[in-house]
Amino acid sequence: MLAGNPPVSTPGTISNWISNLPEDASIPDVTGMGLRDAIYLLERKGLKVSVTGMGEVVAQNPAPGTSLERAKNVEIILQKPNIRRAQIAGR
User: Taking the CB of residue 30, how many other CB atoms lie within 10 A of it?
Assistant: First the structure.
């Protein structure tokens, strides 16, 4: 192999198999996100999403970091942000 050239992989080799694994095989943390962003991120991972409430994500089940399984359901719970808390944080 010449210096600077990546190794060549052929179908069926270990390096080819490893390169096809998902980058992050766990459920992402969507806490604090709006509904649209949370659904987009979870569905891109192949998850089904159920929603309760309105506003931003305050909780999710299963917890972030849980091992990802295709077609698994994730429940997200939303709540409208406290306006007073947002005003204080903006000072």
Answer: 22
Q: Which domains does the chain have, with CATH numbers?
A: 25-89 (3.30.10.20)
Report the side by side order of strands in the sheet with 48-53: 48-53, 73-79, 56-61
Is residue 50 within 8 Å of residue 73, measured between CB atoms? yes
Neighbours of 91 (CB within 10 A): 4
Element holding 69 (H helix, E strand): none
CA distance 74 to 51: 9
pLDDT value of residue 18: 43
Tell me, what's the pLDDT at 21? Answer: 43
pLDDT of 65 strictly over 80: yes
